[in-house]
Backbone:
């Protein structure tokens, strides 16, 4: 059972453009929604996260938009840079150290 | 503060063998979670340990097991290896494993296991 569906699988954006990655979840027990960024050869690193009682969170060029009624959330990367090229994972969290991840989106930002 | 370390970084085994992977969490972190990452299945949760006790478990067969020591270091064992076990095995540590914004999971670089 895939509890978190992520789209698109891959995304190509020009430098300076906006990158948008979407996720939909099924498990209403999730109370924590992180986005992780992973570079080749590295483990995932937390980028930004949101709780379901907040509809939007912004940190620098990264914004999470959260729609609890639709059970959807998205990551927006403004002014995308070549250094943002990586794989992005959305996730849903419950207690006791378990994160359920989407399939990942490979983002390529062309200079 | 040192990050999460995993050893070894790369392993090559043959079918039927067993393997043990090691994870040292960030100092002060007591929760360690393990994940399997493959191109087809993405990141899948294996299990979580806190204070030497397994608190949570994913949907993996009993060939996958783990343990945690009193210093919070954790090991993962896979017995009777199958070709499909080839993957990147990641461990993540957090303070108490509450999966919330105040208790971020920090991932190690992973152990790349290849089963021939």
Residues:
């Amino acid at each position: 059972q895939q509890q978190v569906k992520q789209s698109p699988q891959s995304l190509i954006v020009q430098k300076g453009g906006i990158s948008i990655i979407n996720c939909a979840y099924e498990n209403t027990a999730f109370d924590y929604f992180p986005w992780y960024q992973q570079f080749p050869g590295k483990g995932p690193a937390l980028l930004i996260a949101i709780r379901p009682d907040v509809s939007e969170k912004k940190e620098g060029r990264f914004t999470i938009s959260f729609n609890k009624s639709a059970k959807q959330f998205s990551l927006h990367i403004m002014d995308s840079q070549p250094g943002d090229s990586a794989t992005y994972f959305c996730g849903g969290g419950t207690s006791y150290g378990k994160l359920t991840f989407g399939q990942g989106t490979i983002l390529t930002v062309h200079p | 503060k040192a990050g999460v370390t995993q050893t070894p970084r790369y392993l090559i085994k043959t079918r039927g063998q067993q393997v043990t992977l090691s994870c040292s969490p960030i100092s002060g972190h007591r929760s360690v979670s393990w994940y399997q990452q493959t191109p087809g299945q993405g990141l899948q949760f294996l299990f979580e340990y806190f204070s030497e006790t397994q608190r949570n478990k994913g949907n993996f067969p009993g060939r996958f097991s783990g343990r945690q020591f009193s210093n919070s270091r954790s090991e993962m064992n896979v017995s009777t290896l199958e070709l499909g076990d080839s993957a990147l095995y990641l461990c993540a540590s957090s303070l108490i494993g509450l999966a919330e914004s105040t208790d971020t999971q920090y991932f190690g670089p992973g152990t790349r296991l290849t089963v021939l």
Summary: Chain A touches chain B through 26 residues (CB under 8 Å).
